[in-house]
Amino acid sequence: MSRFALALKALTGNLNVNLHGESQFMKIFSNFQFGDANLEKFVNQGFISNNQVYSIINRIAEDAANIPIIIENKNSDGSIEVVEEGDFYNFVHKPNAVDTYKSFVYQSIVYQLVTGNEIQYGVKGIGSNMFSERHNLAPQYITPKVKETITGFVATSYKYNYAGTNYPLAVEEVMHLKKFNPNPNSDNPAMGLSPLQALYRVLEASNELITADASLIKNKGAIGMLTPKTGGRPVTKTQAEDTDKSLKSRIGGGQNFGSIKTTTASLEFIKFAMSPQDLQILENGVVKLRDFCSAYGVSSRMFNDQASSTYNNTVEDNKKYYNNGVLPPLQNDVDHFNNFFVQGWNERDNANYSVRLDISSIEALQSDQRTEAQKDKLKMEGIEKILNMNTSEAGKQLLLVSNYDFTQEEAEALTLNNTPNNEE
To answer: Each residue of 183-201: b (16+ CB within 10 Å) or e?
Structure first.
């Protein structure tokens, strides 16, 4: 057996396995475990313990919670009415007795980005068909009871184990937002896939780097050491301590910054420099930051990675930050709210309520909004010009279909409505 194979056997602690061929060779790596990934670990080892994960998710959640919403009611004639007061307005802006709208949305987005799930528990009044309160529950303590269907696993009820107490929940009480989980063989297939699942090895490596970084600082706090020159007389312990105190008193403090001090002692200074391996550990932390940012759709330059940072990059990064990082999870949350919580209120008020995001408040996207508004203006001017042309209705319809992507039915309706009434 080769020395390389013997070394690998010793490394894995298994000296009784014969290695023949590639498949057997690769089996030795099964002894290197990265730990079991689960939602509770993503919360504790990711959001709570990893500064990079916390910084990214916390910023996204805070900015998402600060985006205003507009509550609308679509009337039977198709007109839209903005709702600014009333019971439904109060329900949206005050989800429960403790949370405001912003604090509630912050929690929801954090749960979604950390665990891949939002679990919102809805409370209805006695004899009422509408929800009067909603509460965020911690997804890491939720266990769905599931049934298997041709389209996947479906929850039939939920159990919420919190602080040692089990709370049974019906599916009618739970708004469950979950990110797509393509693995039907996972331990909990009815739960969504956490982004940190795909990043789990990166997360573990990052946590180890943070520990190593802290160890470097702890064990290498001194920058160097004074020692007698080669061939000089050694100093006693008492003399060394006296020299240390004298040195600190003479060169310590801001008043001595940049000054030059002299000594009559025959000493030399040995600098404690970081090894290339130590510096590589710190550089790897930036690489892990970029991995996390990539998974959450944001630029690492926004989180103190200053490589290639320019003003133009900053402007573009801000746009991508909202379009790729903030708005998708927030829109997902709003869509689920509209689908789950609104129906009972519509029935009570004979209304057609919905909630939408007011992205006009996002400064980074305003240039894009102005560009889109200008495009819309040019489009309307072009359509108006076609409708006023001295040509047949069929000709106008052809231009509307070919130039502005109208369907034939839409073009016919538009030209018909634009035809002047015949004079009697």
So the answer is: eeeeebbbbbbbbbbebbe
